[in-house]
Amino acid sequence: MLQKKRLYIQEVATRDGFQNEKQFVDTDAKIALIDALSECGYAKIEVTSFTSPKAIPALRDAEAVMHGIARKPGVVYTVLVPNVRGAERALSCGVDEVNLVMSVSESHNRTNLRMTREQSFAQLRDVINVVHVVKSTPVAINVSLSTAMGCPMEGDIEKEEVLRWIQSFADLGVHGVTLCDTTGMAFPTQVGDLCRSARDAFRELELTLHFHNTRGMALANTLAALDAGIDRFDASLGGLGGCPYAPGATGNVCTEELVHMLELDGYDTNIDLGRALAASARLPALIGHDVPSQLLKAGRRLDLHPMPPTDTAPEQRAFTKEGA
User: Fold this and answer.
1) Is 243 a catalytic residue?
2) Which of 93, 151, 195, 243 is catalytic?
3) Model confidence over 292-319: pLDDT tens digits?
4) Which of 50, 104, 124, 240 could be 86's S-S partner, Cβ–Cβ 3.0 to 4.6 Å?
């Protein structure tokens, strides 16, 4: 019997999802949800963001959440940090990894982060120095490159530009890079080409793909990345998330839909899909509205239904007698 290929699913709903929500999710509810996610089999959970509470009030309880969760051995607990101050706050909570973010697109970086790309790079270089040199910690560093597959203001992004920025961070000793389809502009052949080039050039890096489902292509793009050798994917419970620069966006690729597809295709995701669906079912009450997840609505492919009675509808009996 052939061994199933192991994939690594990384949950981002409690950061990427919650930061976009208008309704504040209570700290205890966040902790309870993350504890439930820890039992689902994720390789990594992005817990929160150590950004200024004024910038992202939805995640103003970052320290309380990190200190409150029950950390399960084998799960990497990562957090987003924007600068040295955020890194210091995160390190005080004993995180496993810090995730740094900048855009490959100059326009998106200026709009989203209010800095040029070079200014962002300098700021993130300082963070890397603090984590690895000043504090001498074993904390891993991942860099998420936004708009790696398209910018809503500039259009297509040259592959060589993406590879150049990966190289810049690889030279600083980061352990991983996430290629982000921030506004859902990616398409499968583009994804496959970029992933093959990145995989060939940076075999020492842990490469992750981060897809948004803005135009309904997240699952197709995942299959293209798989064909190119990628085995690590971000996903968001319920399909939460989005980007303010992608009008009409439905959010990130939905965790339960992604896992459902991958397992049907014979991959080992290590995710307990039943537990993940139960966790997803908590979301509407927490955020005050429905979530995009179709799997939560329809159920898994083989969640069968009882056959309805065949002789209770008069109009159906009449239809049968007439032979129409």
Assistant:
1) yes
2) 243
3) 999 999 999 999 989 988 765 555 555 5
4) 50
